[in-house]
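Quick start: what a row looks like.
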Amino acid sequence: MLRRAGNPLLVMAVVLALAGCGTGTFDSTYRVSVEDPTGAVVAVSVFDSSMGDTQDWAEKSLGTASPERPYEATMSAVESRLVLDGGPSKTVEAGLYLPELNPDGWYRVAFEPVDGAQQGVKAPFVPWEVPGNPAPAIDLRILPESDGSAWILDLTVLPTGPPPAAS
C-alpha cells in the first residue's frame, strides 16, 4: 500500500519559500591607501556612484590617506537574492575620487571579489563633464576579505605617471 507523502499545500509552500527571492543590504568597507614613495597624505573619497556622480557628491565623503593611516569608508549595496543565499555581495562597485591625481573626474571601481585572493583591477576614469582628452585608467591592488556577511576591501592605488596639467 502506498503512503501519502504529506500535505501537498505544505510541500508547495516549503518549495516556494526555498526558491523565493528577496532583497538584502550588503556592506563593503573600503580601506584605501596610495602607494607614493614620498609618503604624502592625499585626499581620497569613496562614494556610491549609483546615488550620484557629481563632484559635489564625491566631496561629501572626502578624507585623507597616508601610508600609516588608510582612508576608510563603508557603503551598502542592495541585491536581489534567493532566500537561503547568504554571504557578502557578489560584485562590488564604487566611485573613487582622487583630486590630486585628477580633479576632472573620478574612477569606477567594479569587480567580483574573491575572498582572500589579491586582485589587480583597472579602474577607468569617468569625467565630471564631457572630456576633451580622456584620462587613463589607474591600477589598483585589492585584497578582499569576507567576514561572512560583508567585504573588507584593502585597496591600494598603485603609482602612475605625473598628474595632468591644470585645465
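That is the whole record. The chain has one domain: 24-157. The two ends are 86 Å apart (CA to CA).
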